[in-house]
Amino acid sequence: MANSERVQHLYDRAAKRYDAATRQATLDALRARLLFGAFGDVLELGVGTGATFAHYPPSLHSLTALDVSGAMLRGAQVKALSLPFPVQLMQRDFQTLPFPEGSFDTAVSSLALCGVPDPQRLFSELRRVLRPGGQLLALEHVRPPNALLASVANLLDPLFDHVVGCHLNRPTSELLRNAGFRVEVQERRLGGILVAFKAMPERDGSA
Asked: In whole angstroms, what is the distance from residue 142 CA to residue 18 CA?
């Protein structure tokens, strides 16, 4: 089974319990503060069941939301009905993005970048589809900054990837900088493992 197909299978299976598993006050508060800064035409990666929807400003022009799991999107479809702006839901592997250059002002990820099989490919695509002045807003769990915990994450990562479909040891901010983004960390929780940040493409290609 290909990587993207395996992730789709794992998230289809988890869809029914996803809302209950992620309904936490800390996550909701972080999402609310982060997504307050979303503007314009928004692209959300790994939308899941739409846990972010309640936190978007009503002034958005539009929301295009992608997820590899059809079961997850069925939950998001119900929540999208109450939003005050146009919403398009699409089922697809979002390592490549089927949009013209400069299509979006804001890209959003809430606990989705950890499961992308080829993050550098995705980050290159994000640079392409974001307009000048665009931004990526992300809430992610990342490789622990503590050296001992990072070693544990490295050991557990293959098992976690197999069972859950995401990586415990992904240095997401570093990968974004390598891909030509300027990263501004806004909040850290759980000893730096859970991070909310804004990343903006450096148009000259420098990190």
From this structure: 20
Whole-prediction pTM: 0.84
Dihedral in degrees, nearest 10, Cα atoms 26, 30, 31, 37: 160
Q: Which of 49, 45, 41 is nearest to 19 (CA)?
A: 49
User: Could you tell me what percentage of the chain is helix, strand and coil, using 3-state DSSP and rounding each to the nearest 5?
Assistant: 40, 25, 35
Distance (Å, rounded) from C-alpha 44 to C-alpha 97? 11
The CA-based diameter of the chain, rounded to the nearest angstrom, is: 46
pLDDT along the chain (207 residues), means of 10: 50 49 75 97 96 96 95 93 97 90 97 90 96 97 85 79 77 95 94 94 63
